[in-house]
Amino acid sequence: MERLTIKDIPLEEYTITPGSACQGCGPALAARLVFKALGNKVIRHGVPSCPDSVTRTPHTFSVFESAGAALTGISRALKVLGREDVLAVGFIGDGGTYDIGFQALSAAAERNEDILWFCKNNEAYMNTGIQRSSATPLYAWTTTTQVGPRGRGKETPRKNLPFIIAAHHVPYVATASIAFPTDLIGKVLHAKRLRGFRFIDILCPCPTGWRFDPSRTIEVARLAVQTGMWALYEIIDGREFRLTYKPKKLKPVEEYLRLQGRFRHLTDREIEEIQRMVNENWERLLKLDEMGEFPL
Amino acid sequence: MTIEVMVGNKAAATAAKLSRVQVAVAFPVTPQTTIVEYLNEFITKGEMDCEFINVEGELSAQVVVQAASRVGARTFCCTSGPGCLYMHHPMHDTSSLRLPVVMAVVHRGNKGMQPDHTDLMSHIMTGWIQWYVENNQEVLDSIIMAYRVAEDMRVRIPIAVGYDGYILSYTAEPVDIPDQEEVDDFLPPYKPMPSLMPEDFDPKAPLWWRVPWEEHHKVIVDAKEVIKEVNEEFGKRFGRSYGNGLVEEYRCEDAEAVIVVMGTIASTARDAIDNLRAEGKPVGLVKLKCLVPFPYEDFQRIGSEVRAIGMIDRNVCLGVGGVGHTFIRNAIYDLEERPRVLGFHAGLAGKEVKVSDIERMAEKTLKAARGESISPLVEWI
Fold first, then answer.
1. CB within 8 Å: B22 and A81
2. Which end of chain B is more exposed for a tag (fewer CB within 10 A), N or C?
3. Percent of chain A at pLDDT above 90?
């Protein structure tokens, strides 16, 4: 990635504000930052997602399950027309990336299509009203993982999608956060200069779905990273691994969880379980970072 | 112009090459598979300048051509039976977004490997123009014509060209291959509307979106005139045309009764009609090529000229009836004097349809035309 300061962030704006977004919308901010870095020489592709209309750039859409295929079609058509100066960019939610869009995503990654894929990850189906996806974290309440005598929220941890994509040996995979704009834009600028399949998974808190006050979006996003619930890293060519944010000590996950209504029901034991998982994962990531190697 | 003996799948691939397809995509499915192989061979040999994408399934295949067509590439895909069904969801958008994709559907029925028309007919409501063709020459000619029709600014609707699996896909027949220059002359380069390139982008322009139902329906209905025009022009340039582009009539002059068929059964039926005519029986043949948009006007004219129509459907809309039978009865309802309309289900799941079968169906239809009592009105052969 490129190292930037806040002054290096381009001033141009390409997003529609406020568009169809709620107050404090994380994905809307992700769009703003991503397209500042990409500029408008793009064709942005979207599938049903929340919010769905984000940029003042050329754009296309297709059925929910098909972003990988649509981006392939865009990219190959641009190639055959001699317009490789235009980028094929996917700005796709976690449902369209982790779940229903996974087959076409994996296939496009395996073919190493010339595509930039951004997952605006708000950890559930927010467009249809907060249903769980495979990006939803352990114990999170959603309208399909409810809390009651027979339910404690989502029963399984989220899918480790960035690692799965990296196992396709693509040129670039990274995670990012809207609370770390220079890290995010540095990754976008780096990815923009590569060719082939590039994937950036951006954690974008959703005040409506996560149940927190819209004024606290950045705080929640920052704590996700500072507690290790969402680590920032990049994986190059499916071989090199690098953490791009390494605090000396992680903050307790409780600080992050307690801000959000979707985790309101958690017992101390459940919080401890999450803390243990995060600690183990962080140790593994530190080891990979130290080796500098992605082990697949 | 050269004559080459080739299988139907090579005729389809050759048509894609002659049409200068820029993005081709496919997932292998029997009996379509060799189209994909021929295309790959043409591209590998350098005979065809085309991006070829081996996708992971037909749903993606349909979306790749949809997106590439939107950006501005001429696109081709091909499928059969189960793959055709798997494409259903995005096929609606290809038509709703008015993208001139052309697809070969090598018929394979929905209950097994053998051909019938139930695969493509399952997509009647997707807004695709549907053609059912008779032989390998018509496969090649129809795919070239399909680009011209689909890309016409009055149409901009995708077209599926269906032909019977095995019976044509793997059977060699002489095919007259037009010269590349002649095809180039007939088929100008494709331009997307509106342009999607950043330099043409107008942020104030209305959002480009699915065409509303009423307009969508009218565009497809009106495409009949363009299909007729293109079929006629093709005939003038290449010396071959197929009826009026929608239906093709064979020995219908002074006919008291006609049978209506689709796809390869038409070739068998020509022999049956010749035999009956030799016996002095006034029976004609109508080949229904264009199912969507349905040629109501042609069937109203035919219906006013004969006293009975026997529709031979290589399909069944379960719980409803034969698709052709239902549509023809719909077409003739407004006539003051209606002919009788008999239905036959034949050739489903690849069941052989013999000349003698067709003779029997035609004779039954003739009896109906002559006022004899007929039972049952709809029959499974």
1. yes
2. N
3. 91
